[in-house]
Each structure stands twice: as structure tokens, then as C-alpha cells.
């Protein structure tokens, strides 16, 4: 089951890292970036692992149900 998620990270997301997000929506703010979209729990785990491997600091994570 795919759930809507909002993930906020500190800093800006460059073009190479944006490719990891596929069809997720990415919004860049002055001090952080927001990633929104529907993902399965496995897809979320994979994305969080990729962010961690890239040295990105997670600020906020929220699941919003289906």
C-alpha cells in the first residue's frame, strides 16, 4: 500500500540527487528542501537510505495515510 509522505531535509537538493526521487515532487526552500509523494514502506526505506548515504540531514518525516 502506498502512503503519502512529506520529507524535509536541511539544505538544497542538487540535480544528481533529484534523479533518485523519480516522480516525487521536490520543493526547494531557502534553508531546506521538501520531498512529497506516494511511496510504499519499502520505497520509503530505500529513499531514506539513499538520503543517508548522500550525507543529507533529515529534518522532518510525516506519513499522511492513503
UniProtKB/TrEMBL annotation:
<protein>
    <submittedName>
        <fullName>Uncharacterized protein</fullName>
    </submittedName>
</protein>
